[in-house]
């Protein structure tokens, strides 16, 4: 284990077998300190970052029926919705009044909405507001492609022309088809997820990468996921950040115990050590709460993520942590850093 940790401190790339072995380390402090040292080398600045944005879910109607999701509804359900345009605009205007510079726009895989609906939505937003649109995860784009009968590359080109600025890494879960076939057989495959990201990067768009763990995957499959993300980043350099969080089982169809903060921080630290070509690792206060996310800043994370003026998907699974801008700034200061607001590209903003 000392040899493996020494590799990370000397900028020697870990192998998949190295990554698996790291999970056998029981002392979280060893992994945390190694990840913190790597983070400080990558980010010697005296500040840590966060972003003000809002998660807007334009519909909860979805054909995917993922077993881990408590948010989706069937078409025709009484509580299914598609967001009205005036409600969407009110949410954006509120975000701007709170100094937000970005919206995260995601929804279910609606069976009836065509690509023109999404193009019109983007154009309408850009016509009224100067705001960064981070929207449409790879499963959504694959769905748009299927329902419209055109390639994902053309879908991305059309979305970009209509105003899409960047793509979030949602829908990755674990990028291993054994897991995906158990969890979400109606969603895009691991290869398709990666291909959407590759095509977006080739078109000059930046994206994020994610991992939801703690459900049906093995440790080896967690590392396989990280390896696929790292390999694509070697190829394209298009990922700005990596965000990992634990599966939240309440109100879902999966009978799985909730992973605790120990396993979260261990996986976070190993992600920092393994993903040597991704600059930014984000803490997940949305699933872990304030104090664990603050501790994550000493276990590999250099970013506290978003204030999340609104968040609905995790909340549907029974988790409702909330943090204001002031609270996030306090946590960063209390960890020994200066807090700085950033944009999607991790550039500090005034």
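-> sequence recovered:
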């Amino acid at each position: 284990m000392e040899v493996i940790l020494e590799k990370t401190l000397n900028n020697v790339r870990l192998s998949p077998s190295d990554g698996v072995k790291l999970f056998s380390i029981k002392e979280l402090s060893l992994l945390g300190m190694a990840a913190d040292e790597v983070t400080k080398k990558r980010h010697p600045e005296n500040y840590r970052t966060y972003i003000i944005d809002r998660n807007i879910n334009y519909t909860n109607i979805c054909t995917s029926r993922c077993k881990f999701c408590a948010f989706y509804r069937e078409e025709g359900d009484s509580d299914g919705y598609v967001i009205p345009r005036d409600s969407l605009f009110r949410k954006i205007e509120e975000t701007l009044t709170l100094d937000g510079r970005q919206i995260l726009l995601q929804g279910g895989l609606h069976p009836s909405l065509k690509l023109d609906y999404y193009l019109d939505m983007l154009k309408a937003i850009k016509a009224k507001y100067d705001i960064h649109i981070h929207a449409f995860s790879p499963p959504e784009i694959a769905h748009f492609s299927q329902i419209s009968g055109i390639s994902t590359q053309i879908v991305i080109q059309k979305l970009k022309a209509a105003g899409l600025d960047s793509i979030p890494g949602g829908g990755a879960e674990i990028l291993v088809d054994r897991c995906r076939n158990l969890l979400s057989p109606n969603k895009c495959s691991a290869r398709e997820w990666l291909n959407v990201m590759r095509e977006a990067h080739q078109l000059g768009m930046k994206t994020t990468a994610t991992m939801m763990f703690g459900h049906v995957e093995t440790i080896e499959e967690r590392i396989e996921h990280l390896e696929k993300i790292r390999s694509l980043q070697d190829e394209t350099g298009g990922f700005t950040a990596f965000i990992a969080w634990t599966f939240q089982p309440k109100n879902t169809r999966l009978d799985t115990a909730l992973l605790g903060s120990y396993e979260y921080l261990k996986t976070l630290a190993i992600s920092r050590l393994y993903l040597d070509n991704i600059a930014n690792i984000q803490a997940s206060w949305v699933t872990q709460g304030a104090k664990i996310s603050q501790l994550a800043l000493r276990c590999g994370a250099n970013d506290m993520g978003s204030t999340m003026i609104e968040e609905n998907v995790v909340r549907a699974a029974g988790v409702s942590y909330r943090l204001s801008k002031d609270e996030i700034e306090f946590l960063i200061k209390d960890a020994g850093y200066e807090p700085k607001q950033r944009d999607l590209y991790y550039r500090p903003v005034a």
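Residues 208 and 240 are 6 Å apart (CA to CA).
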